Amino acid sequence: MMSSPVIDIHIHMQPWETMKPAVLARLKAGRSDFNQVQALSRDPQAFLRRLDDAGIERAGIINYTSPDLMGLDESSNSFAVRFCGEDPGRLLAFGSVHPRFTTDPAGDVQRLVDSGIRALKIHPPHQMVAPNAYRSPDGGPGPFPALAEIYRRAEALGVPVTIHTGTSVFPGARSIFGDPMGIDDVAVDFPELTILLAHSGRPLWGDACFFLARRHANVYLELSGIPPRRVLEMFPRLESLASKAMFGTDWPGPGVPEPEKNIEAFRALPLSIQALRAILYDNARRLWESEPAAGRV
Fold first, then answer.
1. Among the ranges given (9-23, 27-41, 143-157, 223-237), the one the predictor scored with the smallest mean pLDDT
2. pLDDT at 295
3. What is the three-class DSSP state of 200?
4. Under a CB-based contact definition with an 8 Å cutoff, are residues 4 and 281 in contact?
5. Which fold has domain 7-289?
6. CA–CA separation, 127 vs 101, rounded Å?
7. What would you report as the CA-atom Rg of the chain, rounded to the nearest whole angstrom?
8. What's the predicted TM-score (pTM) here?
9. Which residue blocks in 11-119 are alpha helix, DSSP H?
């Protein structure tokens, strides 16, 4: 069996204690190992050893703000910086500027990057805003111009933006905002912004995400949260777009198995060695090779 290096671009290590009780209960459901997961979030060195056990060289640590729905406040950003600061060569810190609550979107992006955040996360179903809500259907200004400022500053700094696409099972989430087609506007308006389609529209919008990744040079499929056995059902032509896809697990999200099980199942897919290498490692590695313009890592 091929054993190329692996980058998991989507793992959640978060300040769980800030989550609302109903959200935390949904996350814990069916996870007998959640106490161990919580312990890992308090011990980055133990987490790095867990990555070693799973055969993962590097990981994107996903954090975002959603104080009203999820209970995740600004401490999520500082948590990501501290956690990933243990080994920034292996851990990529994702942070968030909430487009509905920020009063200085461009400045907030800059401050996050200056603090050590290396990538941004927009979560439309949990932040309750469409990804293109900076514009109206007729092309005029939209209700949330802060989004454009977030994208514009991230583009200028060379900071990738991961946007959640697809549904959410958490209490209060608005899955309608997970429709990825609004990202077509984002890719057109910010052509130098690297955009990762988290979960690639799972389970409803795979075709739309495949279209977006094919159409736009700056848009990538991000395969986290999709059971590997279903990846080729959703994307039967994935081999042809292997240079535009990245592997991720979404661990320890609801129903997501241990990372090593996910990796083993993905490696068993009938894809070429070259495609597996690109998806499991090479494409995501470029995120590490491109430092933000602010110069901090």
1. 27-41
2. 43
3. helix
4. yes
5. TIM Barrel (3.20.20)
6. 10
7. 18
8. 0.96
9. 21-28, 34-41, 44-54, 75-84, 105-115
Q: What backbone phi and psi angles, to 5 degrees, belong to 132?
A: -110, 30
* Residue 44: CA count within 13 A, CB half-sphere: 19
Quote the CA–CA distance of 83 and 24 in Å, as a whole number: 20
CA distance 265 to 267: 5
Across the beta sheet with 195-198, the strand order is 7-11, 58-61, 91-95, 119-122, 161-164, 195-198, 219-222, 245-246
Percent of the chain at pLDDT > 70 equals 97
* Assigned token pair, 131: 């990804």
Burial environment of residue 214 by CB neighbours within 10 A (0 to 12, 13 to 18, 19 or more): middle
Nearest one of 157, 28, 178 to 95, comparing CA atoms: 157
pLDDT digits (tens, 9 = 90+) for 208-256: 999 999 999 999 999 999 999 999 999 999 999 999 999 999 999 999 9
Chain length of the chain: 297
In angstroms, how far is CA 41 from the centroid of its own chain?
Answer: 17
Would you state the pLDDT for residue 127?
98
**Based on the number of CB atoms within 10 Å of its own CB, is 203 exposed (0-12), middle (13-18) or buried (19 or more)?**
middle
Q: Where are the domains of the chain?
A: 7-289
In contact, 222 and 197? CB cutoff 8 Å: yes
Q: Using CA atoms, how far apart are residues 247 and 80, in angstroms rounded to an integer?
A: 20
